[in-house]
Amino acid sequence: xxxxxxxxxxxxxxxxxxxxxxxxxxxxxxxxxxxxxxxxxxxxxxxxxxxxxxxxxxxxxxxxxxxxxxxxxxxxxxxxxxxxxxxxxxxxxxxxxxxxxxxxxxxxxxxxxxxxxxxxxxxxxxxxxxxxxxxxxxxxxxxxxxxxxxxxxxxxxxxxxxx
Length: 163
Hints:
mainly alpha; Globin-like; 0% strand; single chain
């Protein structure tokens, strides 16, 4: 638990305020631009981007507060993500770094001194946890299901309404 980090992080969220509006879409767009190979696995990106952003902020805040539920939450979202693709701990690190950077830029001069470092310490702890949890390779059935979802999405996106 890091009370100082938690307080700085909370202050930074307050400073972010209304600049949070639209942040999830921006984060997701920037992440996918850097990782286009993951775009097809997000069947409903509008829902995923909001949920991913919220879960990221909650996990880092919870980690700073020493909350009991953080590890089980991280295990759950790593397990869920592995149903769609083989995300690595480096992928999570990049997402966390992008989240911190985006919040700081959107807040501008109101971003509290030391807030980025506080967020980064918690992100690093989460990446360590994710690395410790490890990855379970996708099974053949999961890969087939994921491929089927990708093909259905591509079909819908093409405008062809025949199945």
